[in-house]
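Homework help board

Subject: predicted structure for assignment chain

Our instructor gave us this sequence and asked us to write out the predicted structure in C-alpha cell form, then describe one feature. I got the C-alpha cells but I'm not sure how to describe them. Can anyone check?
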Amino acid sequence: MIKMSAEGIKLLKLKPFDKSRWMQLPRDVVIGHDVLSQIPAVCEDLSLGDSALVISGKSTMDLAGQRVSGYLADSCKVKTMAAASINEKVIKRGEAAARKVDFVVGVGGGRVIDTAKIVSYNADRQFISVPTAASHDGIASARASVPSAEGHASLEAHPPIAIIADTGIIAAAPHRLLAAGCADIISNYTAILDWELAHRVKGEPISEYAMALSKMTAEILVNNASIIRPHSEQAAWFVTKALVSSGVAMSIAGSSRPASGGEHKFSHALDRLAPGKALHGESCGIGTIISMYLHGGDWKGIRASLKAIGAPTTPADVGIDDDVAAEALLMAKTIRPERFTIFDMGITKDSAEKLVRMLYTE
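My C-alpha cell output:
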C-alpha cells in the first residue's frame, strides 16, 4: 500500500515552534495587460530591498524572465537562475543564491513558482510571483507541489508577498493550461464538500470564511464558463483573479483544505500511475465529476462547465486507460491518509470501474 504524504520530504527548513498562527496574504496584486513594467513600483511599495534573485524556466526566461530582470536592473542588483525542474539540487542552489539577495522573484509556470516559493521560504526572503500561465492556484497559495518517488507531495511554505500577472502573456500560453487552471478552481466545489464531511465524521475543524470564499470563487467561474475562450485576455484576467482568490482562501484556512479534497488525491494517484499524461488541474477536474456524483450533487453541471471551458472530462481525453483511472480511485485513500474525503468511504474495485464508466454517459 502506498501512503504518500509530505512527511519525509526534507526540502523545507524547519521553523521554530510558535503557538500563535499567522495569516499571510499577498499585499500587492497586479493583474492586467503589459504589467511586468510595474514590478519596480511594487518592490518600492513593499520596501523589498535593492538586490533580487530572478528564478525562471528555460523557455520562460526568454519569454518574461529577462524582461523582469531588465525592469528591476534600474533599481536593483539582479541575479538570474534557470530552474528546469524542481528537486533538492535545484532548491539548494537557489537557497545559496537567495541568501545573498534581499528578495526572490519567480517567473514562470507552476514548477518555477513552487521552486521560488520553497527557496524564499528556506532562505527567509520574501518572493514575488510572476506567472506566465494560469494553470493552477499555486501562483498565490502557500503550498508547493514537489515530485517524489511516490508522486507529488504538497508542502507548506509561504504565499507570495506580491503577484504580478500579465494577461497578455497568460493569454498567449496554450489554452490547455488555462483550462486546467479553471478545472483546479472548479474542484473547490468538492473540496469544500469533503471538508464538511470530515468535520461531521471526524470532527475536523473548519473555517467558514475560507469555505465561503473558495465556494464563491468556483461558483463565479462556473457561471461565467462561456467567456473562457482560447487566447482571450478577458479570460486570462478572469481566471487569474479566481486563482488568486483560491490561494487566499487557503491562506485564511492555514491549509489547502478549501481547495484540495478527494479529487486532488485522485489527481496525485494518477500522477503515480500515469505520469506525464494529465496536467494537475485536468485530473482534478475529472476527479471532481466523480466526487460530486458520490456527494449526490450536480455532477452533470460540473461536467458541462468543464466541457464548455475546454477541459477534459474522461480519462480517454488525456490518454489514460479507464482501468488505470479506476485504480487511481482505489489508491486515492492512500494519498495523504490523514485527509478524510468521500473517496475514503469504501470504494470497491467494482464501484470504481462503474464510476469511471459513468463519466462517459450522456
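Reply (TA_rk): Your C-alpha cells look well-formed. For the description, you could write something like this. The longest strand covers residues 51-56. That's the kind of observation they're looking for.
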